[in-house]
Specification:
The chain is an alpha+beta fold. Helices cover about 70% and strands about 10% of the residues. The chain contains 12 helices and 5 strands. Strands 1-2-3-5-4 form a 5-stranded mixed beta sheet, covered by helices on one side. The longest helix has about 90 residues, at about 150-240.
Length: about 425
């Protein structure tokens, strides 16, 4: 039995060396035991001594093999008693049997060398050195007893062997510690990689959740809000006995619902080319103005919405078209729902290094300082937050100017040469529908 070792697929060079040393130690113990038995057999020994030596050797071999097999099984499968708990007792039994054999015949001195390594590997430093010293003394005394007088060879041989074993054992221990540290570092690396993968997955989930929230707010939620308002207006017309007006408003409900259904289908399919599929950006923005006028009129209000273009139009990345279109949708929906405005102006401005969208209304206005930092508990207050996130993805800027009773101006500007990676990310599937 030696220091615990757990083989693994893809073992390091240090693990391979440790395994080879373990095998060499066990092989040396077995070979030296056989050698000692053979040499004892050819010396002048009484039969009772020989029988005792044979029986003791067999028992020593059985104890040694039992311990090493149990350790190997525990190392490979994790089953059976833990070697660290009974290793010292096992070594004590092996040493006691060896001392008994040494008293029978000094030929068993050969086993001292592998015992040195076992002492150094299974015991703490001071007990291990004490065990090596006792083992060395036992060998010296056995050799002295055989020759009848002390000699330099009988003393120096065991001492040099013990010193060599201590040096080799220290090197083995250092190699074993390094192997264990590498295994622990590898396990920590695997754990860290697993945590990083989980963190990246969570970040991806949160990012996708935010993207879905923006899309739902800017498309489906706005359309459903319009449907609710138009339905109420149709109900009011019926209550007033005006079926013609009610029918007109219900037709707008149907038209808005159809448009919303189309948006939902594109959203589910994950397409990102809504501005390209339904005409140019200018045409889409002009259509949004007309739709806002009709919805406000159907609800019994009056809104004059004007769209104009300043500068020479240039082709835009689909991510830009999507952001500008969603911004116009969201801002016009806010005007319809909250501003009470009679007029609104959408201005799309092209310049050499940027494109801008300004949305003005002459409605009730508000104090920009009271804008919420996050969505309200009822789910409202998400529009400008969503718009800021979209614009931030493209390294743009957003400003809001308003005051109670003085209307509102929202201006957003996008640089025409942003980071290509940001534009690609913003144009990911699903962003444009």
């Amino acid at each position: 039995m030696s220091a615990p070792y757990t083989p693994a697929d893809g073992a390091s060079p240090g693990d391979v060396v440790l395994q080879a040393l373990r095998i060499a130690l066990h092989t040396a113990f077995a070979g030296l035991l056989v050698l000692a038995v053979v040499q004892m057999s050819i010396t002048a020994q009484s039969w009772p001594a020989r029988v005792s030596a044979y029986a003791g050797s067999a028992l020593l071999a059985a104890v040694y093999v039992t311990g090493t097999v149990a350790e190997s099984r525990h190392a490979s499968t994790g089953r059976g008693p833990d070697p660290r708990r009974y290793g010292a007792a096992w070594l004590g039994a092996v040493t006691a049997l060896w001392l008994g054999l040494l008293m029978i015949s000094p030929e068993f001195s050969w086993l001292a060398f592998p015992l040195f390594f076992l002492d150094l590997q299974l015991l703490r430093t001071l007990p291990a050195l004490a065990a090596v010293l006792v083992t060395t003394a036992a060998v010296v005394l056995a050799q002295w007893a055989r020759t009848g007088h002390p000699s330099a060879a009988a003393l120096l041989g065991p001492v040099i062997g013990a010193l060599f074993a201590v040096v080799m054992g220290s090197a083995y221990s250092a190699l074993h510690r390094e192997s264990v540290n590498q295994r622990l570092a590898l396990a920590e690396l695997h754990r860290t990689r697993g945590e990083l993968a989980a963190s990246q997955h969570l970040a991806g989930v949160l990012t996708e959740r935010e993207r879905l929230a923006r899309e739902i707010h800017d498309t489906l939620a706005q359309g459903l809000s319009s449907i609710v308002l138009l339905s109420r207006a149709a109900g009011s017309a019926l209550d007033a006995g005006d079926p013609v007006l009610a029918r007109e408003r219900l037709q707008l409900v149907q038209s808005t619902a159809a448009d919303n259904l189309t948006e939902a289908r594109r959203f589910v399919r994950g397409l990102a080319a809504a501005p390209l599929e339904q005409g140019s950006l200018d045409a889409r923005l002009a259509a949004l103005c007309s739709d806002a006028e009709r919805r406000v009129a159907a609800a019994g209000g009056v809104l004059k919405c004007l769209f104009r273009v300043d500068g020479a139009p240039v082709p835009l990345h689909p991510a830009y078209e999507t952001t500008l279109l969603r911004a116009a949708q969201s801002l016009l929906a806010n005007i319809e729902a909250h501003a009470g405005a009679s007029s609104a102006v959408l201005t799309l401005e092209y310049s050499p290094d940027s494109v801008a969208l300004d949305v003005f209304d002459d409605g009730a206005g508000f104090d920009p300082a009271v804008l919420p930092a996050g969505p309200r508990a009822d789910g409202t207050g998400f529009g400008l937050l969503s718009l800021r996130e979209r614009i931030s993805d493209l390294h743009g800027s957003l400003s809001v100017e308003s005051a109670p009773g003085e209307g509102t101006v929202v201006a957003l500007r996008l640089p025409l040469n942003p980071d290509p990676d940001s534009a690609a990310a913003a144009a990911a599937p699903g962003d444009g529908a």
